[in-house]
Amino acid sequence: xxxxxxxxxxxxxxxxxxxxxxxxxxxxxxxxxxxxxxxxxxxxxxxxxxxxxxxxxxxxxxxxxxxxxxxxxxxxxxxxxxxxxxxxxxxxxxxxxxxxxxxxxxxxxxxxxxxxxxxxxxxxxxxxxxxxxxxxxxxxxxxxxxxxxxxxxxxxxxxxxxxxxxxxxxxxxxxxxxxxxxxxxxxxxxxxxxxxxxxxxxxxxxxxxxxxxxxxxxxxxxxxxxxxxxxxxxxxxxxxxxxxxxxxxxxxxxxxx
Length: 257
Fold this sequence. Notes:
about 30% helix, alpha/beta, six-stranded mixed β-sheet
């Protein structure tokens, strides 16, 4: 069964229609990417999926169920979210932020048990943040905060992750670490990705957005051609199959060459 199916989803901010008849699917275990220029609708689509926004029309099913009919707790047991915003209104310890990911598994007044603490430590350890467990979240750098939020969604132990440019604030070492770890989890992923080479390296399929519409979709080698990249981004590039990774690699060309 298809894990997620979006059919003709539309969303508008006032009179501005920013998602037009969006149709996409994500199969079980796939790592699917959403790419496109700033303002193309990537974050809007994800926000509709995790119900920060409500679509004007269209349908979404998750494991065959109407996503918008699920309770928030039932959805949280299936879907984990890492958004672009990492603001937290109150100060917490890093381990407390990550422990919030355990909430869907607990009743209202349940306290953390040994298993919860193990999961939290395990998530922090795999992101290289175990030594920061007692640090104040508000004192962290932007990249460190993003890693904490990724640890929180890993601690949630759901098997479908919605990621909105999850490595945008991280240096290249941590970008690779995060995507490598997510890939090893073997979960289903739908992620907005800014870096086209990262999308080519990790995605099984890619949907390309422009002005709120999906204009291309397919495997990275089918989608990430010089012609398509110029059409979407207005930049020239060369693409080739990398001899080590076997994946498409993109070299962007400055104007005048």
